[in-house]
Structures are given as C-alpha cells and as structure tokens.
Amino acid sequence: MIEIGISGYDNHVQYKEKQEEVRKMPKGKRKLVKCIVCGEIFDSELDTCPVCGVGREYFIPYDEEDIRFSKDTEETFVILGNGAAGISAAEAIRERNDTCSILMISREAEYSYNRPMLTKSLSSLISAQEILMHQPEWYEENHITNLLNSEVTKLDTSNKTIELKDGRRIAYDKCIYALGAECFVPPIKGSDKPEVIAIRNLEDVKKARALGSSARKAVVIGGGVLGLEAAWELSKLCEVTVLEVADKLMVRQLDDKAGEVLGELIKKAGVKFRVNASITEITGEEKVTGVALRDGEVYEADLVIISCGIRGNVELARESGITVQKAIAVNEKMETNAEGIYACGDCAEYRGANYAVWSQAVQMGKTAGANAAGDTVEYEPETPALSFEGMKTALFAGGDNGKNPELEYQTLEYSNLEDGNYEKYYFHNNKLVGAILIGDTRKMVKVTEGLNVGCSLNYVRNNVIHP
Ligand SMILES: Cc1cc2nc3c(=O)[nH]c(=O)nc-3n(C[C@H](O)[C@H](O)[C@H](O)COP(=O)(O)OP(=O)(O)OC[C@H]3O[C@@H](n4cnc5c(N)ncnc54)[C@H](O)[C@@H]3O)c2cc1C
C-alpha cells in the first residue's frame, strides 16, 4: 500500500523548511526526481513527494531543465489563477526574465497550494500552511505579486486589460489564462442545500470536515477516484455510502474485472457503495436528510459530497473572443488565438484533450510561461495515469485499458485475490498501451516506463509480472 505522509520529518513546518532549503540550492547542484504518482518534479533530498505525499519508491531520476534562454524586459505578465498551472507559468517566466513584473490573481484567499491533497487529507487538513507550494517569502524573493481574494470579471483583448470585480482595471503585456475548473454539479433537485458540497478548494474541505464530524451518515455521489478518496477520508468521521450512476466504480479508468476487484476491496474496508444508482433527489426540507433513487430506495445522509467531474472556467475567454472548444484551444506553445494570451491547465485543451490532472497542469503552465517570456518550448503530453490510495488498498491505472472499441487488444492478467492483488496489462500491436495495478502498486515505476516505451507482451510477462 502507498504510504502518504511526511516521513522523516517531525511535522509539516520542518518538512516545508527542508523543501525551501533544497529549493535555494544552486542549479546544477540539485538532483531532481519525478514522482510517478502525480508527476511532480522536485529535489531528490526530499523523502516524500510535496504534492501527493508518497515515498521514495515512487520516484524516478529526472534531468534538470537546461534553460539557456534569458531576456530581461520591463513587461507586465498578468497570470489569471494561482493553481498548478499559474504558479508553474510564474516560475518559468522568472527563470528567464529577472526584471519583468509578474502579477498573479486568484479569487481564493491562499497562496498557491497542492490541490490534490484536499481529498487525500480531508479528515486531517487544518490549514493552507500545510500544503502551500511556496512560502510567502519565496514570492518576495522572486518579486512576484499576488492579488488574493480578487475575482477577474473581464478580459479585454483589444485594450490588453483585465477587470476585477471591485472595478480595478489592470493592463498586461502578456496574459496567462490559468483559471482552472469548477466541480460539475448535476442538476439534481436539492443539490443547492448547504450540506451538499463539491470539493474544489480549501473552503470546501473545511466545510465538509466540519459537517462530517457531526454527521451520522454521508453519501458521496460519484464513484470516480476523487469520490472514493473523499469517501475513504469521510469514513474516518462517519458512515459513508458511495452512489455511482454507471455500472462500475472508476468507470473511465478500469475494466469490468478490475472494477469488481476494487468493489470487493471497498466492501472489505467497510465502505458501502451502490452502482447503477440513478439519483432523483437530495431530500430534506431545511437540512439534507438523504438521497433518493429512481427505484425508490433512499440513502439517509446528513452530508452529501458531489464528485461528478469538472467544467473548465472558460467563460471569460469565450466572452473575449478566444476560441473555446471543450476547453480553451491552445497550440503546442500554449498560445490561444488572441495575441499575447496563453492558456494552460484544467481550462485548456490541446489537440482535443483536456487532461485535468496535476502533472499536465504543471507542464502546460511551464510551457505557457516559457513561451510568454520569449523562449520556444513545446508541450509534450504524457500517457495519462492516476493512482488512488485508500480503502485499505492502492490502485494505479494508466493509458488505454481497452476503452477504444475500434482497437483490438491483447491482455495479460495476474491475480491473487486472497492477498488483494490484481494486475492487468493491455497491448495493441504487441505494445503495452494500458495497465491496472490493484493492491501492491510498487511496480508502478516499471509499468510507467513500460507504458512510455510501449514494451512488448513477452517483456511484461517475463520482467514485470514475474521479475
Ligand atoms: C480534490 C482534488 C483532488 C485532486 N487530486 C488529484 C490527484 O491525485 N492527481 C492529479 O493528477 N490531479 C488531481 N486533481 C486535479 C488537479 O488538482 C488539477 O488538475 C490541477 O490542480 C489544475 O490546476 P490549474 O492551475 O489548471 O487549476 P486550479 O488549481 O483550479 O487553479 C485555478 C485558480 O484560479 C482561480 N480562479 C478561477 N476563476 C477565477 C476568477 N474569475 N478570478 C480569479 N481567480 C479565479 C481558482 O480559484 C483557482 O485558485 C485533484 C483535484 C481536486 C479538486
């Protein structure tokens, strides 16, 4: 099972101090690693991943970016949003330009923080301080200004200005649009009640934990990875049932068998779930009392968490004339069709794909920042993968697990269900294209490498399943 935490450090403050210390080391002296669970790149001296908290066994060596481009200017770079994409863009700009002004704007109250930790530590997270990506001093040292609690309401591409809710207008030379996404809340009757929460930011977590601590029962609507993470954390506070409209859990990432295996493990962990759950209403007059299904069944609940996917924050872009498809259309440099405006992260779409995962938000942000600063950097998307830790098990799913009806796949399967272990590998034209690990996920490094190079069926049989 993946251990999540800050092993080797007494507390979060000590761990953050270590993080800052290694960050200040001169370039070239640092040895970097990449976490294959979330894709974060950081110094090899850290024992745990600063984003998702897993240990060294999930790190692979990573060559430090060799940045040769440098151009100091008096330009103003305005970054809309301070999530993974926004902060990565700010870093990339400052790495290339010492003198420009960088302004980051966010409607949240906190400096950039590790969003994936919200559901992973829902039952224990106390303050933003524990999950900040940089301490406030870092922004001072790098001359990066943050406008927090500030909502952007308009983007005027002809006059190169943005407007804030309080009426302020700010001019930019280059603008990075990194407004991320919001949770999608399906139009279910009763979903506007105060005890119904969709988790996207720290405030949502605080609310969910406060309600969960006094709740007797909670329902999580949505059996995807974030729903399951939230359910597991909430189960430490009250009784939880997960309701999933599809016929299996994690339907986008798993195949039928893996969905069943996961279901059995979840039952063993003591969390109830129901698939094929067609929800008609969240019941209750003043307060939530339960969730009603089309077949008449009602699940009692004092708290309902909605985890039904996301919708990119694209409206300001659309209104300003920027091309929006599923999300904001960008090219390999993260340029939109509006001059001087780059988009990245959960609100952006590259070649029809809107990955909406941390590692890609970081990569897109770095690419946008580098190109906005005048460098030439191309975005290279990676094989999408996710991992889950909770329900007394762990899971990794990467690539295409038989989801394309037009392709013929060969598969390899290995299961030891008594020990809760299951492995499945998908091949197309004798190349590894997808993999699922449940239980013991320590092979994740090997499997990720195998997916990246498209290794053969025989190689997986001889070197991965039976090393
Ligand atoms: C609970 C949770 C758990 C997750 N776990 C994982 C995981 O385990 N692994 C993984 O790969 N991914 C995970 N993700 C997804 C990952 O966190 C996102 O892909 C990533 O954070 C996207 O970064 P971003 O910068 O594009 O957007 P965001 O992080 O959403 O940042 C956008 C920022 O813009 C601000 N904003 C929006 N509109 C405005 C406006 N009009 N004015 C001013 N500010 C505005 C928002 O408040 C926000 O601060 C998780 C997401 C959530 C919500």
Give a short summary of the structure.
Helix content is 24%, strand content 26%.
Structure commentary:
This protein is of the alpha/beta class. It folds into 4 domains: 12-62, Rubrerythrin, domain 2 (Single Sheet); 76-182 and 312-372, 3-Layer(bba) Sandwich (FAD/NAD(P)-binding domain); 196-306, FAD/NAD(P)-binding domain (3-Layer(bba) Sandwich), CATH 3.50.50; 394-465, Enolase-like, domain 1 (2-Layer Sandwich), CATH 3.30.390.30. It is 24% helix and 26% strand. The chain has 11 helices and 28 strands. The chain has helices at 12-23, 84-96, 117-120, 136-141, 202-214, 225-234, 256-268, 315-319, 358-372, 444-453, 457-465; strands at 32-35, 41-43, 59-62, 76-80, 101-105, 144-147, 152-156, 161-164, 169-171, 174-177, 181-183, 196-197, 217-221, 239-243, 272-274, 279-283, 290-293, 298-300, 303-306, 310-312, 328-330, 341-343, 348-350, 385-390, 393-399, 410-416, 421-428, 431-438. The strands form 8 sheets. It has a 5-stranded parallel beta sheet with strand order 6-5-4-10-22. Strands 12-19-13-14-15 form a 5-stranded parallel beta sheet, with helices on one face. It has a 5-stranded antiparallel beta sheet with strand order 24-25-28-27-26, sandwiched between helices. Strand 4, helix 2 (84-96) and strand 5 (101-105) form a beta-alpha-beta unit. Helix 2 packs parallel to helix 9. The longest helix has 15 residues, at 358-372. The protein starts with 11 loop residues before the first helix and ends with a helix. The model is unreliable at 1-11 (pLDDT under 50). Flavin-adenine dinucleotide binds next to helix 2, helix 3 and helix 9.
